[in-house]
Amino acid sequence: MKKEIFAKRTIEAAQAGIADAFAASNNTELISFAGGFPDAQLFPNDEMGESFRQAFTENSLNVLQYHDNRGYAKLRQILAKRLTADGTNTSADDIILTQGAQQAIDLVARMLINPGDGLVVEAPTYFGALGAFDAYDPTYYEIPMDADGMNMHALQKVLMAHSVKMIYTIPDFQNPTGAVMSLAKRQELIRLANQYDVVVLEDSPYRWLRFSGKQLPTLRSLDTEDRVISLGSFSKILAPGLRLGWATGGQKWIDAIATLKNGADLESPFITMVAVANYLSNNDLDAHLATLRKIYASKKDAMVAALQENLPNGFTVNNPQGGFFVWLQAPAGVDMGQIMKADITPNEGVAYIPSQNLYPSKTVCNAARLNFTGEDIPTIQKGIARLSKALQKYAPVVPAAALS
Amino acid sequence: MKKEIFAKRTIEAAQAGIADAFAASNNTELISFAGGFPDAQLFPNDEMGESFRQAFTENSLNVLQYHDNRGYAKLRQILAKRLTADGTNTSADDIILTQGAQQAIDLVARMLINPGDGLVVEAPTYFGALGAFDAYDPTYYEIPMDADGMNMHALQKVLMAHSVKMIYTIPDFQNPTGAVMSLAKRQELIRLANQYDVVVLEDSPYRWLRFSGKQLPTLRSLDTEDRVISLGSFSKILAPGLRLGWATGGQKWIDAIATLKNGADLESPFITMVAVANYLSNNDLDAHLATLRKIYASKKDAMVAALQENLPNGFTVNNPQGGFFVWLQAPAGVDMGQIMKADITPNEGVAYIPSQNLYPSKTVCNAARLNFTGEDIPTIQKGIARLSKALQKYAPVVPAAALS
Question: Which one of B96, B243, B292 makes the best mutation probe of the A interface by having the most chain A beta carbons within 10 Å?
Answer without folding.
Answer: B243
